[in-house]
Amino acid sequence: MIALGADHGGYEIKEAVKKYLEDNNIEYKDFGTNSTESVDYPRFGFAVAKAVANKEYKFGILCCGTGIGISIAANKVKGIRAAVCTNEFCAEMTRRHNDANILCMGGRVINSETAVKLADIFLNTSFEGDRHSKRLSLIEDIENGKEI
Ligand code: RB5
After folding, report:
1. Which of 5, 72, 79, 103 is most solvent-facing, going by the fewest CB within 10 Å?
2. pLDDT band at 36 (very low <50, low <70, confident <90, very high)
């Protein structure tokens, strides 16, 4: 199950990703927004991040104008590794090395076709584990207020 969210700047690419999920029979929940009317991206970033952190959804996909603001909001939630991606290489590597659980993209940065391609790569790439797991543990330590 995928949790989807966007603000007005990411609405259009979120809709394109939604169509891709439907076409591929991938279950999702759309947390909004549902138009190009101006809204505050932290609300959507938080709703999706909370649902992913609670393990109600395996992955989240968040879109705003740049992908940046909504990623900053999502990354405030413990357990979230939200990655802004603008190209195929980053979408693949953030799964392989960072075990990212939320893909963030910008509707003013990439077009719908690229957003769908990045979502497809992100959802179909596995974490490599191994030496990368140790680094994720260090990130967890930071989250838990430990010195590293
Ligand atoms: C909204 O205008 C814009 O600031 C937002 O979509 C996003 O780009 C923030 O990072």
Report:
1. 79
2. very high
